[in-house]
Request: fold
Amino acid sequence: MAGTSYNSKDQYIHEKDMKLRQSFVLCSHLMSVEDADIETDREGFHALPDMGIGVIGKYRALRDMESATPNIIVRESVYKKLCAADRAMKKRPEYQTCQLVVTYGYRSLEIQTALWNQIYEQIKMEYPEESENEIREIVHTKIAYPEVAGHPTGGAVDVVIYDFEKEAFLDFGTEVGDLTTTDAYYQSDAVSETAKKHRADLREFMCKQGFAPYDGEWWHFSYGDREWAYYYQRRAERQRPNEEILPEERVKALYRQKKFSQISEIAHSEKYRLSKEIKEETRIRLAVQKDGRLTEETLSILERSGIELTRGKRGFLSQAGNFPLDVLFVRDDDIPNLVEAGVADLGIVGQNVYWENRSAGAPGSGIVGENFSWAGKSKSVIERELGFGKCFLGLAVPKSSGMKALKDLVGKRIATSYHNLTEQFLEVHGLKDQVEIIDIAGSVEVAPLINYADAIIDLVSTGSSLKQNNLILLNNIHILDSQSILISNRVSGNDREKRKIIDRLLERIDSYLLAKKYKRVVMNAPAVNRAEICDILAGLADVKDLSDDDSCNEELRAMRDCQNPLAIGIPVVLPSYGFENWDTIQVIMKLSDLWRITPELKKLRVCNILFYDIEGLINFE
Ligand code: ATP
Ligand code: ZN
Reply:
């Protein structure tokens, strides 16, 4: 500051503040940004869990939304980006035991407007001479102008870093949300070197995921709002200083401000009250996929286990009337986190999603499957493999590429939505630094077609999608074989009351899984072949299989032990009315056995084989 003299330290500080403030965005800047894109504005909102070691949301300085939405809510993409920022942060050794904590997210447009009006009146009285525009700018430095404000879009968040091992927030020089001091300015010189480093690191973690920072508050970041659009617009202009940017090239905001009434359906749903609820009776909570490939089978397992859900699958939460179980409907990607955080006690999810997530949560690099061992701490365990949703994570290349072996991938790009599993796979095969991973969320199989990648790692079940896109599996490599699994939170699993309920549920599921293997089979057969056919059928009685099976439950054990015609594998012969030379034979057997003996039965002129699912058995003894 050579050459300038100041009357007092106060003035010096004031001048310096003014200098720092030059980089702040003005209200008029934001008013010049084009309005939110209608399509992108349709995006939904997501409630942040308020416990766990991933990203969580907890109100701190600002609490004006707390009574309306106990859990902080943000746009879905914002949540995803926060998770990615959190994961990336944990890869840095000094942040391994840290987590991002969002202290403020969506604020209703109603509250924003009320606050604005209040401050506007004060400023107007203080500066009666100033023009309307000038007053608006002054008010905007204290509270964002509702029309351009970020928090009401659900795109802006206030973020801090918490160290869950030290049980303390990192030092950022000021408390989050403290606007009483100019130390809150990102570039403030008055804070310690440690605080400066934490600010810079937080900014790096967030901006790498596409958030825009705000120089006036070290904790404020946004995605999709006008501040974000303005920030990225400016950046584009700086990168192409001599080019004119056409109107259609300008970065538009993605989200508009929302009134509380527009999103209150979400905010009032049980989903948001979950962790606040105090329950008298112990109940367990199961997270399942809301709407996808796993939904139907999952609901069918519950139904067949005798669990009646009171609400359709459209609600967030459905309570079982006849069992202490609540079912939470969410996106499958959220299930491992919800169970890990204990927001749900149980979850049904594909192994692929589970391992992708668990490896991401692990400090350092976690590795999965047979070749892999996972070193991190997990708060969830696998209780059962459920036998449906079978697929595998395969590595495919274009047929025409001529690639034959893993080493052909050197210098190539692999597109995938399974970043962590892919990274680990490459690492195990010593290819980590030689292959580029391209993250895409969907339609991975078209990436090679449009020359966006040279290979893909994606889920395969029938392989028809690969065929359609002229892709073939490289070496038939299965990076991960997957099916649906039932996972549980460790703490819930060790809680005496909850364990009892979980075991009761598992018993029913086991009964279903076992019963699913068996069918009631009815066939018409010529009476002359009766003895031969019955010998074949009786030979299938698979008593050993049942007694060895730990999961064999009461009902099935009864089915096996009762020496009456309904026992498994004992054929019952009935006369066919009007067809004296024909029998109707009934038997309970495994479906796999039926397919195996069909050729023999055909030889014995059996016709009309019908088979039925077994719902259960009531045994009076
Ligand atoms: P959500 O909207 O809940 O995030 P999603 O689009 O991520 O759903 P789905 O396509 O419904 O997921 O698939 C759910 C799970 O089904 C997968 O994670 C996987 O475990 C299993 N699955 C079985 N076969 C396939 C397949 N051929 N392709 C993709 N997933 C499969
Ligand atoms: Zn998903």
